Amino acid sequence: MNLKLKPYFQLTLFFKQIIINNNIDFLVRIMDEIDFIILKKLMENSRVTYRELAEIIDMSVSSTHKRINKLLENGVIKAFTARPSAIALKYLSVIVFGTSNAKSLDAVSKELGQHENINNVAIATGKMLYISSYLRDITGLRDFSAYVSKTANISEPTVGIMDIPYITTPEPLTTIDYKILKSLNRDSRKPLTDIADEVGLSAKTVRKRLDRMIENYLVEFTIEMTLKSEHNLITGFHISLNEGTSIDSSIQNIYEKFKQNVIYCISYSNIPNFFTMYIWTKAIQNSQKINEELQSEGFKDIIPIIFLHSEFYDCWVDQLLRTK
Q: What is the DSSP string of 90-132?
């Protein structure tokens, strides 16, 4: 009898020691649906309040705060960021993707990250690379595409210009706006009072300027996140539509049907009848199920890609804030 109970006691002591040592990585690194909702909302607006998030996920403010802290501690959230938007600076958001013939994709990612236009490089299965960048204007697109193709060793890259609605702004960003965004660049959840102290303004003025920037789509509040947790699988789908099919309607249908999993969909102004869809699932089986459901939607073609690693880099937009 004692011999049978001994393994149980050993296991109990093992877990007690883990708790005592605070070495519970394998327990807290597991993501769930609530974490995904939090991450998605923070991607949309990294300044969303704890109370607003708590109401969305139907949890207490303190529990919501703890979850975000765990996501930070485990490296899932790398930073809360603030930048002038594409509407404010009139830059192009460009994604170059394709199969790389390079031996080390990590080395390629680091080299690409040195380019002033590149803010993210994602590595996926099949040696696929996704290079996200901000171009000041379209005149630099050809040279930039050639640079990426050569550096990443992608013989046939796809170059997509993200389809961003045209919105006129009543006035450009001011010197004060730039100072506020500089303060928030790598810590966008910073309290108003802290921002006010840094830029030498009242908290009321800071709030007024932030509200104006948000109202006129002049700022992008988001997060940088990684795949550093279990049950955190990101799958991308290249979706080609049949001629005459509405991209907007197709994307809207995707959001409605897979709202529990969709991170976002991206259409491209220079690639007709095509968009990319990115989803979160806890396991490959869940991703496969969504793939099967997409196959029944009648799309012309669907290519699933599993993401393995993603790295963020400073780009000229970040550097611009430091000069203001």
A: --EEEEEEEEB--S-HHHHHHHHTTSTTEEEEEEEGGGEEEEE
